[in-house]
Amino acid sequence: MIKQSVLSIAVILSVLVAGCLDKQRHSQSSSKSQSTEAFGASISAIIGDSMATAEPAVPVRDESRYQQSIEDSQNPNEQISTSRQTAITRAVKKVSPAVVSITVTEMVQGGRRLEFSEYYNRFVPVPIEREVSSMGSGFIISSDGLVITNQHVANRQAKRVVVSLPDGSQYEAKVLGEDELADLALLKIQSEKSLPTIEFGNSDSVLVGEWSLAVGNPFGLFESAKPSVTVGVVSAVNRDFRPNPNEPRVYIDMIQTDAAINRGNSGGPLVDSEGKVIGVNTFIFTGGTSGGNVGLGFAIPSNRVQKIIKQLSTAGEVTLSYDPGFSTVEMTRQLVLKYNLPATRGLLVNSVNKDGPAFEAGIVPGDIILKIGDERIQSKMHAQALFREYQEGDSMRVELYRKGDRYETKMYLRKKVKE
Question: Which of 89, 135, 136, 418 has CB atoms 3.0–4.6 Å from 220's, for a disulfide?
């Protein structure tokens, strides 16, 4: 009996111990699982927070596909229209509204006719005057109506100057100033509206071989005044032409182009591919082969044009910013014979200001100036053109002839000292 009781107690104890162990293991397993779940939840929260605070990724666009998508979105006609637009067409569109046609009426004398004179009581010959019209081109540089053209197109001797714009409007123009030496003239038209303008470019940065466009109204063919355009390249820069003693104009540092320039294009702009004026179309060289374009056109560089126009707009003429301090006359056959001088081209110094740069440089009356800088003087007009290349504060190299010898000196240019 006692033995059975002991066995019963032992069985109950073993069952209780086993149950406690199972409960402990179950508790440890639950806590471990909860720990793992909490750790996973914290990582997920961190990742979620970092993604929420991070900036959104910027997609990289494939330009070729983007362009292709644009082309695909256009119909065939739009694609052709887009492909036709070039730097040249954009430049033409930019400058055309400000390019004008200029019609000039002058009175010229042609022949003589007999007319009875009551004073002499007989017939006497009198000159016949008649009106002659000519045409050229120009371009507007200010919205209030300043127009640039060549002096051989329009000058103060003109009886009437009419400027026609591409939109069909016409204005009578006044000649504000002219410079025969540089072959430039400045006109002014009055308009109630703001006028289209053209921007100047830097002619010193022009590259040989770059595109050039000659814009104007060749031969005055088109009454609508809408300009025509010819395209070529800049063939050369800094072209100088030997001055003709009988010609009042001197052309130096010219831009050469093979863009067709014909009669009527004179005064119009020579434009680069950015739609900026790099020169004023002035003349062509035919070489005696014909009277038309042979691919040798020349334009006055824009930087020179701007300097001259600035003076024409304020004073109506071009003057030097300095006083050389002497006066000269051109060498002639009569002077050579009268004063037993050498038969050479140059300027004879006939007076010197004792307070001027020439006196300080040792120049005296009777000297013959042969060169200014490195240029041999061809005429007095040529010398004036060379003088314009210098400004107040510059030094000018001068080569002289005196009593059978040649001398070289430098003049330091400054304004005239008042006596």
Answer: 135
Using a 10 angstrom Cβ sphere, with 0-12 exposed, 13-18 middle and 19 or more buried, the burial of residue 284 is: buried
| Residue 283, strand partner residues | 298
**pLDDT tens digits for 132-146?**
888 899 999 999 999
Are the beta carbons of 146 and 188 closer than 8 angstroms? yes
**Stated pTM of the model:** 0.72
Selecting among 179, 183, 258, 367, the annotated active-site residue is 183
Give alpha helix (H) positions in 54-120. Answer: 63-73, 76-84, 87-95
Residues β-bridged to residue 177: 186
Residue 52 has phi, psi (to 5 degrees) of -70, -35
Tell me the three-class secondary structure of 320-355, residue by residue. CCCCCCEEEEECCHHHHHHHCCCCCCCEEEEEECCC
Burial class (CB in 10 A: 0-12, 13-18, 19+), 65: exposed
pLDDT tens sequence across 294-316: 778 999 999 999 999 999 998 88
Please determine, for residue 2, whether its predicted confidence score (pLDDT) is greater than 50: no
What is the pLDDT, as a whole number, of residue 411? 94
State the residue for tokens 């806590």.
Answer: 31
Question: From residue 88, how far is each of 93, 199, 234, 270 by CA, in Å?
Answer: 9, 16, 14, 13
Known catalytic membership, residue 382: no
The predicted structure's pLDDT at residue 145: 94
The one catalytic residue among 152, 179, 212, 258: 152
Active-site entry in 266, 302, 323, 367: 266
- Is 183 one of the annotated active-site residues of the chain? yes
Catalytic (active site) residue 152: yes
